[in-house]
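Build the 3D complex.
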Amino acid sequence: MQFFAPARGHSQSSAPDKPIPILSGTAGVLTSVTAGQTLLDTQINPVLLIPFGDRWLVESRGEFEGEFQRPPGGGPFGGPVNKHLDYLQADYIANPYVTITAGRFLTPFGIFNERLYPEWIRALQPDPLILPIATASSDGAMLRGGFPLSARANMNYAAYVSVASIGVNGVEAERQVGGRAGVFFPGPRLEVGASWQKALQDDRKNAIGFHLAWQPRAIPLSVHSEFARANQGSGYWIEGAYRLSQVNVWNKAMRRTEVVGRMQQFFSGDISPDAAASFGLPGANTREADFGINYFLKDGLKAVGSYGRQLSSAGNFNQWTVGIAYRFLIPLGRGDTP
Amino acid sequence: MKRGIVLAFVLGVALAAFAGSSNTKESSTTTPVARTAHADTMRALGEQRFRANCGRCHAAPEKFPPRAMATVLRHMRVRATITDEDMRLVLIYMTQ
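Done.
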């Protein structure tokens, strides 16, 4: 019962640092050439954070994405502007172990969807192939939190019930339960965890996933990996991002430079290629390797570039991406101590 | 089975809410750790916790105004499920 027991002094704010509403988010412009087809992708993801009192937070993120291409035969770029509400949730920090969330929220399956998705955070701009598996936004309630297991390990968890999931291509009335648990070891800076999701209707299908994040102390390397398996398919990705701060030449520029590599594979599941495409998944078994370079111009502003090669029975192609990503933060109130 | 899962979840929510609401008054008068005599140690610990937790996903941002940073940390506490203690120490590091 200690898990639910009240604890002393756990509320976050005190008078000097009383939180204020802020408008944050990411804006990015990316040009990609996939299989010879040029796409100009402009995206803005505003995040609105409104704290109430010591324990409440209302948070929301929207997505406005313009995907512009030249029409066949030439002409100016044109295309749709997609709008999407990623999450709109109320969080109540009940105690140091439990936060209660209600509303629409990012489904905690794996780590990419919740933690690495924003353009200014992700090391490679193309999504991992398995990202659509079990990551559609959920509408319902969730318990989540993190707490120390011992001096050498922290536990984090999330458990949710969703009454309707919003799929990649619209509303799919799907009820489901699921959760994610991870253990983080601060010493070696290693986190490992697992995710699970179960649909509550039809064939009551399951999805499972595993994730890993590791930042060794000795070198500025960041490794992330996920595995996911569901009826739509299965696959994995592993990515390493290395900051060149230990290179002794052109040190000022090298400190701002990051090189990235990612390897991934997707294995088709029990659905047709068309159904897979509607989920945003490849229609056939696929392998992909990506390499990229990021240059941090200043805090929150980085230039990105990558090259990838995708191999599958549906066809092989190259993918080039170049662009810029920016993170902004605007305090909606007096930011310093009153 | 399905009903059982839902009932267990609702029970968990109710218990957590009850536990949390019982000490609202007490926690609102808590003195921040940043005001203790160990401010330097707290800042060093905060930097350590920042590198261990926040560094898992992104590089260190510039330091925003304290009250804005308090909001960011509340957001990250929920999003990244960092512990209560880690959040407090990172907040000290990022604001002092």
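The first helix of chain A runs from residue 112 to 116.
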